[in-house]
Specification:
Blueprint: E1 35-38, E2 41-44, H1 65-74, E3 84-88, H2 95-104, E4 113-127, E5 139-156, H3 158-166, E6 171-177, E7 183-185, E8 193-199, E9 203-206, E10 209-210, H4 217-228, H5 237-246, H6 250-257, E11 261-262
Parallel strand pairs: 3-8
Antiparallel strand pairs: 1-2, 1-4, 3-5, 4-5, 4-7, 6-8, 9-10, 9-11
Length: about 270
């Protein structure tokens, strides 16, 4: 399977980043992908036909690290050695989400950002036990020994990282060592550590067991309504998101009352 080369990085697709519907969170589509966000669009780094096996099983690098470095240099952007590798578990896996965050920053932010798919072990994804401002229930990681997931890791420079940090009020950014969370990037690298945004509030759980990420808010709202009997969670997901945006403490208060929160099990210094 060929990896991306520098010639593949010359055909960006325009960044179409309208406001995303909260009921459609996490907006990642059917599969995670490697990409390069540029000022004039997004370059897909994966083969056109997609990738059917985990990154750690590819045998050869799917994404050419040297091609990424060349693209960064051509854009006058910070090299990978000066960037922080951050594992994304929700909508931050998509270049369009990050492009929106840069655009909303109250200062000029360098745009060029690499996104690389990866295999992650001993980690899984659930939900923060409270809503984000638009009314959806966001994703959050938790310790899950023996689990394996395909996610996206993003290399942010210092300015980009400060912008993204400021958009994550429900999270602490933690550093996970490879001993706790082994990661294999589509470049073939196995980094010594990776950062991740971990929930400040624990994760949604049932009988003390984290509830895995539901890829449709409707599914999660229906599940929480069944567990709590809360009538304000009944209805179309768009309607419920609107209701929760106006009552931002409802979900948190409700799940605490019903014992639907557990610790995420991630190491904190």
């Amino acid at each position: 399977m060929p990896s991306a080369t520098s010639s593949d990085l010359a055909r960006p697709e325009p960044v179409l980043a309208p406001t995303a519907a909260p009921e459609d969170y996490p907006w990642v589509g059917p599969a995670v992908r490697s990409a390069l966000l540029l000022a004039d669009g997004v370059v897909d780094l994966d083969p056109a036909g997609g990738v059917e096996v985990p990154s750690e099983e590819l045998g050869v690098p799917l994404v050419d690290r040297a091609a990424i470095e060349q693209a960064l240099a051509a854009e006058g952007a910070a090299p990978l050695a000066e960037r922080t590798l951050v594992l994304a578990v929700g909508s931050n896996q998509t270049p369009r989400t990050i492009a929106r965050k840069y655009a909303r920053a109250r200062r000029s932010v360098p745009v060029t950002t690499p996104f690389v798919r990866c295999t992650v072990r001993d980690l899984a994804v659930g939900h923060v036990p409270r809503v984000a401002a638009p009314g959806y229930v966001p994703a959050a990681p938790y310790r899950a020994e023996g689990e394996r997931m395909e996610l996206v890791a993003t290399w942010f420079d210092q300015e980009q990282l400060a912008v993204v940090d400021a958009t994550e009020p429900n999270y602490h950014r933690l550093r996970l060592d490879a001993a706790d969370c082994p990661v294999v990037l589509a470049t073939g690298q196995e980094p010594d550590h990776v950062d991740v945004y971990a929930s400040r509030w624990g994760v949604l759980a049932r009988d003390g067991v984290p509830i895995p990420l539901r890829h449709r808010q409707q599914e999660l709202f229906d599940e929480l309504q069944g567990l709590t009997g809360e009538t304000r969670l009944i209805g179309d997901a768009a309607e419920v998101c609107g209701r929760l945006a106006e009552q931002p403490d409802l979900v948190h208060d409700l799940v605490l009352e019903h014992g639907l929160v557990a610790a995420d099990g991630l190491p904190r210094s």
